[in-house]
Design brief:
By secondary structure, the protein is mostly beta strands. It has one domain: Lipocalin, CATH 2.40.128.20. A ten-stranded antiparallel beta barrel has the order 1-2-3-4-5-6-7-8-9-10. The N and C termini lie far apart (69 Å).
């Protein structure tokens, strides 16, 4: 009687572990509209985001005004951030397509070159950066996953890690200015 119980426990543990494995999005990437970042970010785009620590506590809220310029060879993104506490920041990205669905990007606070891979409605964007924390900075890695949704809304979820340990998650929602009746804010 004990033997079948052990088999049941082992099978339950295997089922539990496979249920916790990372989601595979390959089949899902073809369900939404195709994401071409050079098209999506052309012109003015607005975003709203939050940062949650690894325990799920909301630590920061922010909004972003982005001016994008695609000249046929490279995409310049001028991002202006306004945080809930009044802090302001700016990042200017230069992003270049390097092949079918492949991108590289650089900005002043990015260490080396960001790498992006696009497939269907998704883009995985990975980079290291010096993140401002108080009067100093921490060198962290970002693993961004962006998903273009019907209605032309872009959802971005990014894990932030230091020394391989997750510090938290950034969640953002992007929308084109021309989809809004009026500008929600101006930075």
């Amino acid at each position: 009687m004990e033997f079948p119980m052990r088999i049941t426990q082992v099978l339950f543990c295997i089922l539990l572990l496979t249920g916790c494995s990372p989601m595979k999005t390959d089949s899902l990437s073809q369900q939404g509209p195709a994401l071409k970042i050079e098209e999506f970010f052309q012109g003015k785009v607005y975003a709203w985001g939050i940062f949650e620590d690894r325990f799920g506590n909301l630590r920061r809220q922010f909004q972003v005004e982005i001016d994008g310029d695609w000249n046929g060879e490279r995409l310049i993104l001028d991002e202006r951030f306004l945080y809930g506490d009044g802090e302001r920041d700016q990042r200017i990205w230069t992003i270049t397509p390097t092949g079918a669905g492949q991108y590289e990007g650089q900005a002043d606070d990015i260490i080396g070159t960001a790498q992006g891979v696009s497939d269907g409605n998704q883009l995985n964007w990975r980079y290291r950066m010096d993140l401002k924390v108080g009067d100093g900075s921490w060198r962290v890695t970002f693993d961004d996953w962006m998903y273009l949704q019907p209605g032309n809304v872009l959802v971005n979820k990014a894990e932030v890690r230091k020394w391989g340990v997750q510090l938290g998650v950034v969640t953002l929602f992007f929308i084109h200015a021309d989809q809004l009746k009026q500008a929600p804010f101006s930075l």
